[in-house]
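Title: Comparing notes on inverse folding

I've been comparing how different people in this forum approach sequence design from structure. To keep things fair, I'm posting one structure and asking everyone to reply with a full sequence. Here's the target:
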């Protein structure tokens, strides 16, 4: 019996017309049916049709690559740049509007914000940054979105004010929360609701120590909620707990500290303070209302000049105020000072004080002048961490930085230069800080 000759597989020349047709019609469907065999051509099997389709697809892909390379070469020859793929919607004219589907609208290149150059050895230091609303997680609450923008722009600056604003924003998150079916509030809200809010705030600006303490306290309260109570009762208890926390740890604590600081001031004192802080301002005004006669020297921070507002407010209240534009110019005044009162962002467990950059220099000048160094700080800002320098924990100023260097927002004053730390627990020496930490229930 004579053998039946098989039709040879299509070669490159037979595949060329198909490739050209595919290139001419880019909208052709990939799964289009195979064309009917020509007269006298044997019908191919399924495996052979699959092999031919695979070969045609590879040929089309190679043709497309060659065309892209030729287009890029032509663009470079004209001095232009090849078009690159971008993530997210295209922006037209920098207005934030999506481009038309046809792709004819020009794409405005995104402007890269140039920040300070940070050497590798300081890469562990964090820095505040503007997180656009489009980059935030879709689960972030609007109140938290607004707070993140305010913190990254340093509208909300002091640690205690940031803490209070964070707790109030999280309270709104809890009030609007609804437990999904099949879940319980205590097991769902922390990981699926609170964590996205906290991550967004941390991306906007590094979390201060008081925020970390309060968030740890809040998560502990959530884990202690009985699963048998209703969601409304659980949310009510959490919101009441947040209000009580703000009232006790911030409002009442500030009142006690202001009263204690005012009592420390005596007639004839020369009190030196640094820049502007609402807690220090309240203490100085309180002592003045008590009828005490003393002088105030306001040493300003050369980078934000907030001390000018402090000096104007104190002078308007009738105090005898001397304004110094920088620390270098205040050395003469420091020789006559009796007390130096500043506020701290945090206090480490070894008694070191974490405060606005420049506080350490002021403390050293106070020590040389035998001036008592008094630090005002709520216990919520105490941390169990330790620091002996200003580089272990710090933030980089996102605005005051150049290619030649960068500026740190805070510095660390060693316990040897601190006389008294005033908190709502009274005046303590730096070595007594661990005892306060043991009394704090959220640690």
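Reply #1:
Here's my take.
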């Amino acid at each position: 019996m004579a053998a039946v000759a098989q039709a040879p597989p299509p070669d490159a020349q037979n595949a060329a017309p198909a490739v050209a047709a595919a290139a001419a019609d880019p909208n052709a469907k990939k799964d289009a049916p195979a064309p009917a065999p020509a007269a006298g051509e044997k019908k191919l099997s399924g495996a052979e049709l699959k092999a031919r389709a695979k070969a045609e697809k590879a040929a089309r892909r190679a043709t497309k690559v060659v065309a892209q390379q030729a287009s890029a070469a032509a663009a470079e020859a004209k001095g232009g740049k090849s078009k690159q793929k971008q993530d997210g919607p295209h922006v037209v004219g920098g207005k934030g509007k999506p481009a038309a589907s046809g792709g004819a609208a020009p794409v405005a290149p995104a402007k890269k914000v140039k920040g300070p150059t940070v050497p590798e050895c300081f890469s562990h230091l964090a820095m505040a940054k503007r997180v656009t609303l489009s980059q935030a997680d879709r689960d972030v609450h609007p109140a938290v979105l607004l707070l993140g923008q305010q913190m990254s722009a340093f509208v909300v600056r002091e640690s205690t004010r940031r803490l209070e604003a964070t707790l109030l924003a999280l309270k709104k998150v809890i009030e609007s929360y609804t437990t999904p079916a099949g879940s319980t509030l205590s097991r769902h809200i922390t990981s699926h609701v609170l964590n996205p809010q906290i991550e967004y705030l941390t991306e906007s600006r590094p979390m201060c120590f008081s925020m970390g303490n309060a968030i740890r306290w809040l998560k502990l309260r959530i884990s202690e909620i009985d699963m048998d109570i209703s969601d409304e009762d659980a949310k009510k208890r959490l919101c009441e707990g947040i209000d009580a926390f703000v009232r006790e740890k911030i409002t009442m604590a500030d009142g006690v500290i202001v009263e204690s600081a005012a009592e420390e001031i005596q007639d004839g004192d020369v009190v030196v303070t640094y820049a502007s802080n609402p807690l220090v301002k309240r203490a100085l005004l309180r002592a003045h209302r008590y009828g005490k006669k003393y002088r105030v020297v306001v040493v300003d921070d050369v980078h934000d000049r907030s001390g000018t507002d402090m000096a104007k407010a104190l002078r308007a209240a009738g105090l005898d105020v001397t304004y110094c534009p920088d620390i270098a110019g205040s050395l003469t005044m420091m020789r006559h000072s009796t007390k130096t009162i500043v506020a701290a962002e945090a206090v480490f467990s070894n008694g070191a004080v974490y405060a606005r950059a420049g506080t350490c220099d002021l403390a050293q000048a106070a020590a040389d002048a035998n001036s008592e160094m008094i630090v005002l700080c709520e216990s919520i800002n105490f941390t169990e961490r330790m620091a002996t320098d200003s580089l272990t924990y710090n933030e980089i100023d996102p605005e005051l930085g150049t290619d030649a260097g960068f500026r740190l927002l805070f510095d660390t004053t060693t316990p040897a230069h601190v006389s008294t730390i005033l908190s709502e627990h009274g005046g303590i020496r730096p070595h007594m800080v661990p005892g306060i930490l043991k009394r704090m229930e959220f640690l």
